[in-house]
Structure formats: C-alpha cells, structure tokens
Amino acid sequence: MLQVGERMPEFKLRHRDGDVTNEDFAGSPAVMAFYAVAFTGG
What is the pLDDT of residues 1-42, one digit of tens each? Predict the structure, then answer.
C-alpha cells in the first residue's frame, strides 16, 4: 500500500478518449482507487 507522499506507480490504462498514464497526473495531487470486482459477477 502506498503512503501519503509516495510516488504513484507507473501505469497505462485504455480509455475511450485515449490512454491514461501516471504522467497525466504529474505535478498534481491524485487519488488512485481500484475496484477489483466492479461491474463483474464477483
């Protein structure tokens, strides 16, 4: 788990409007949330 002030890990996600990467948030505070079973039967 990341702690406050730690760097966000590198990532690249596909989005309908184009890819999103950690570089898109450079220099800005960000909250990263992941819902492992969102929109699934899990």
Answer: 778 888 888 999 898 999 999 899 888 888 877 777 767 765
| Cα–Cα dist 2/4, whole Å | 7
Phi, psi of 15 (to 5 degrees): -140, 150
Residue with tokens 């788990």: 1
How far is C-alpha 10 from the chain's CA centre? 9
**DSSP one-letter code for 21:** E
Number of C-beta neighbours around residue 34 at 10 A: 5
Name the CA radius of gyration of the chain, rounded.
13
Rounded Cα gap, residues 10 and 19, in angstroms: 13
